[in-house]
Structure formats: structure tokens, C-alpha cells
Amino acid sequence: MEQTVTVFSGFSAQDLLFLGEAALRTLWISLLSIAIGSLLGGIFGWILYETKYWGGILVNPLLDMFRSVPLIVQLVLFYNFAPIVGLNLDAFESGLVVLTMYTAALVANVARGGIESVGRSMRIASRSLGMSYWQDMRYVVFPIGTRAIFPSWVGVALGVMKDSALVSVLGYVELVKASQVLITRTQEPLLIILVVGAFYFVLSYPVSRYSAKLERRWSQ
Amino acid sequence: MFEYNFHWRPVFRSLPDLLEAALTTLQVASLAMTVGVLLGFILAVGRMRETGVIYWFATTWVELARNTPALFQLFFFGFGLGALGLHLSPYLIVLAGLTFNTAGYLAENFRGGFEAIPSTQLRAARSLGMNPLQAYTRILIPQVMRIVYYPMTNQFVWVVLMSSLGMLVGYRELTGETQFFASKTYRIFEYFAVTAVIYYVMVKVILVLSKVFASRFFRY
Question: Mind listing the pLDDT tens digit for each residue in A15-33?
Fold first, then answer.
């Protein structure tokens, strides 16, 4: 007379759709934070380069905090800090703010290195050709600098894409959170985890290979 | 301005526990780093063979470690292996995940270090009658160490920060312990703020110590 009631249901085609949507959310939050963060990071990098003194004692320690505290702590901290100052942010918005600042902090150093990599004589030459400061920045420093830092920037961007998995702690249903939900329901952890891992790998591996190839070609 | 009463007292009362958890963090990070360095060297040597089973094994390891989120790797050692009937304790999950990740990243650093040393060094050592082990430990590795020292320091900082993922697999290192207290008292912001400070101080101390170390060891 024993009857087993099963609360678990197997992995179905619909779940793939669920994972797909979650993957899009991962992509969306990563793309947004990489785009805004890189822009901010470029500005911070320029500030660090131009204002040696104030940049060194004000901006750098500030950015350093984002690099010296685990991202997961930053996320929880900001998510709980926002309501204190009267901001009503959901998981996506909090995650976006933190990831963006994190990206900006990492890109700032890279960007400063990029500006420094443009030889001094090159800049003196462009100024003596009659270019203004901004023309020198726009037509000389920017093209040469971005090329020099492109591989490290790709490294940072891929890192942020992978770290966006941590936004799951706030309850934002991106890929890793979705996999947790599905694992709880289907009790098939291995299959789902491998699908999720494969997604990140397929996204990250070709990009990192391509950037390594570019780096080799440019360094010749 | 703030419609929120900060309650710092419970945090300070559990500060000894938090500091003890910080030691746990340092302990698991150091162990993962030590094993990671050893494995990283082996993987780097394997990667330099350019062909054969060892090369493919090392390459797979390195690419998987570098192209998937650390959180995914931790979940794999947790749920993934659990599905295969291998149940690791939270401590072992964190240790295995961090070691796997670190070994992969360090292997690439080490490979870069080995490639920076002229191959004549190895041949000269061998022709002086050293066996391969002697040539590596007495000639190559001391030179490689100089090159990879700072990347290694950075990697160690990453390992300390990454160990915070232990919170998500139920390991009570610093972040896990903070989460535990925070959910007991609901003073989430206060607890995580103090934890952020502890991480910041730990990272700074590690960086300063590594500079002192370097000035002693790489004097010549």
C-alpha cells in the first residue's frame, strides 16, 4: 500500500528556455556594467594620470576599496546600504551599480597604463604640430593607448562577465541563480551545472583566444 | 537624513568571532595558494610540452579554470561531485575550488615566466651534469620566481577575496561567519561594513608584507 509522492519533476524543454532567459540576463547586466564601467574607468584613469597628487590621495584609495573587498561583500553591503540613504533599488539595479564601479576601478588602472604607454616624445611632437590638448588626446593618445591596453581590457571585461554570477546572492535570476532553482526542482545537479559552465566557457574562451592572438600579432 | 538607527554593538560583541573567521580565511587561502603554486608549476611544465596527453590535460585544466566563474567551479565541486556520490565537506569544496582556479591562473603566469628565460640556460645546466630536477630547482625556478613574484602576490590577494564564495556553499570563513551573524541579528549592513574593513586591512597587510619579502629575497 505504499505510495510515493514525488515533488521533483525531471528536466524538460521548458527549463532550457528558462536557462536561456537567465543567460540573457547575465549578458545584459554584464554588457551594461562593462560599457558604463569602462567609460567611467577611462575617465578615472585620465584623472589618475593627470592629477598625480589629488589622484594619488583621493581617487586611488577610493578605487582601491573596490579592488580590496570581495565583490560579494560589496554587493550585500550596497544592497543593504541603498535603502538607508533612501534609494529604492532592486537586485538588478544594485548589482548593476556595484558591478559598474567594480569595472571602473579595474579599468582605471588599465587606462592610466594606456595613457602612460604613449611615448612622451610622441605627445610633444603632436603638440608642436599645433594640436590642442584635446586633439592630442583624441587623435594620438586614444588610438595608440587603446591598442596597447586592449588585451588587458578584454581580460577585465571577461572577468566582470564571470563575476556577474555573484549578483545571484541578491536574488537576481541570472544564469547561476536559475541553475540553483532548477537543481532544487529537478534534483539533477550535474547536468544543469555542466550546461551553465558550458555557457560561460563558450562565451569566454573564443574571446580570450582571439585577444591572445591579437596581442601576439601586435607585439611582433 | 538617515531614517535608520545604526546598531554597532552586536557587531563589536562578535568581533572576536569575526577575527577568528578572518584567520580561517587566511588559513584556507594560504593552503589553496600553496597547493595551487605546486600544481601551477606542474601544469605550466605540462603546457610547454606542446603535445601529448599531459599537454591536453594541462590545457583543459587551465582553460576551464580561466574561462568559467569561480562560483561555478565551487558549485561543481559541491553539487556536481555530490551527484556522482562524492560528498565533500564545505571546507573541502572551498579548498578544492580555490586550488583548481588558482592553479589554472598561476600556470599561465609561470609559463610566461619560463618562456622569458632563454632555453640555453636549461641546456647549459644539463651539460654541466645536472639532472632535470636539479636544473629546474636550482637554475630555472629561482629566475622564474623573480618574474612571477608580483603576479603571484596579486593572485594570493584574489584567493583571499575569492574565499568569500565560501559563504554560498556553507563554509564559515569571514564572509560566511558574517552572514551567519547578520541573519541572526538582522544588522546586515553593520556586519558587512565591518567585514569589508577587515578584508581591506588584510589585503593591505598582505601587499606590504610581500614588498618587504621581495626586498629581502630579490636584493641582487
Answer: 888 899 999 999 999 999 9
